[in-house]
């Protein structure tokens, strides 16, 4: 959904392209601002008192139509980009992630964080996005939360890199460790989609709200999603708390232990994908 501000900005650009700007209008002046001898030209010359607008209905209509066409072009480019990514092999995908400039996160990142582990893994763990240490090293979950994740893996006999792949919803660090926005997650979605297609995990573990929201397309709480098997494009998904949340909320550790045991017993029931 395109915001009104962006629409207005785009409409301005389109009008400029069409040679229809500047179009001026006299801003309503309140009586106390208007002086006795103020002429129309003095008002128009003052940048304080004029604002560019689309004055003629036919220009409005032309701009609106051009705007809709440019929305179609954006959609087309997005779809073509996604289709291209979904054709890539592992090395091409890595290279594409490294050079990605599809969203604003590229301007503040130090390194992209593709993911780490076994590309043939049965287990795929998906977090939110890189933090400061991950951004510096180019590897997911290397900070405090990462140590806890390694312990969570060890608790069910798993080890980073051995039959496990760890990835994130976004490959670049959101500044200040904020949550990735929906459009940032959308831009990055084809990369995770292709990783999932190539890895073909038997089971995906969604770590925290952002992973659950993007993989399962739901805003439901972790509390209401845990303890059940969900599906992402036909692959079973189990939801649990994010390790960073566990570092702050010790009481959730027991629930996470239950989730890990549930994941372990679920894996035993799953057949290898064909
Ligand atoms: N938190 C995440 O969600 N992912 C990381 O890689 C690190 C911290």
Task: Characterize the structure shown.
With 274 residues, the protein is an alpha/beta fold. It folds into two domains: 80 residues, no CATH class; 167 residues, Uracil-DNA Glycosylase, subunit E. 47% of the residues lie in helices and 12% in strands. Strands 3-5-4-6-8-7 form a six-stranded mixed sheet, with helices on both faces. Strands 1-2 form a two-stranded antiparallel sheet. Helix 1 packs across helix 3 and helix 3 runs parallel beside helix 7. The longest helix is centred in the N-terminal third of the chain and has 29 residues. The two termini are 37 Å apart. About 12% of the residues have low confidence. Bound molecules: uracil. Uracil (URA) binds next to loops.
Question: How are the SSEs ordered, and which strands pair?
Answer:
Elements: H1 4-17, E1 24-26, H2 40-45, E2 50-52, H3 57-85, H4 90-98, E3 116-117, E4 123-127, H5 132-137, H6 144-155, E5 164-168, H7 182-199, E6 203-207, H8 209-216, H9 222-225, E7 230-232, E8 235-240, H10 243-248, H11 252-269
Parallel strand pairs: 4-5, 4-6, 6-8
Antiparallel strand pairs: 1-2, 3-5, 7-8
Uracil binds at residues 127-131, 134, 140-141, 145, 168, 244.
């Amino acid at each position: 959904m395109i915001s009104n501000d962006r629409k207005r900005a785009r409409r301005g650009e389109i009008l400029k392209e069409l040679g229809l700007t500047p179009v001026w209008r006299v801003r309503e002046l309140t009586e106390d601002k208007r002086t006795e001898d103020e002429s129309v030209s003095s008002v128009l010359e003052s940048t304080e008192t004029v604002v560019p607008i689309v004055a003629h209905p036919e220009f409005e209509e032309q701009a609106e139509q051009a705007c809709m066409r440019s929305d179609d072009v954006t959609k087309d480019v997005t779809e073509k980009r996604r289709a291209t990514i979904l054709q890539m092999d592992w090395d091409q995908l890595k290279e594409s992630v490294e050079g990605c400039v599809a969203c604003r996160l590229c301007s503040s990142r130090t390194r992209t964080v593709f993911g780490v582990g076994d590309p043939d893994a049965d287990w795929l763990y998906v977090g939110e996005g890189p933090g400061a240490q991950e951004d510096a090293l180019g590897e997911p979950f290397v900070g405090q939360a990462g140590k806890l994740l390694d312990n969570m893996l060890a608790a069910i006999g798993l080890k980073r890199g051995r039959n496990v792949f760890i990835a994130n919803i976004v490959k670049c660090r959101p500044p200040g460790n904020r949550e990735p926005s929906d459009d940032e997650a959308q831009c990055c979605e084809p990369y995770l989609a292709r990783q999932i297609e190539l890895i073909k995990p038997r089971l995906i573990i969604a770590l925290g709200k952002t992973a659950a929201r993007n993989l399962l397309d739901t805003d439901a709480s972790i509390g209401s999603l845990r303890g059940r098997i969900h599906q992402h494009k036909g692959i079973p998904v189990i939801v649990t708390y994010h390790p960073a949340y566990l570092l702050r909320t010790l009481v959730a550790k027991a629930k996470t232990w239950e989730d890990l045991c549930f994941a372990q017993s679920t894996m035993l029931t799953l057949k290898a994908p064909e």
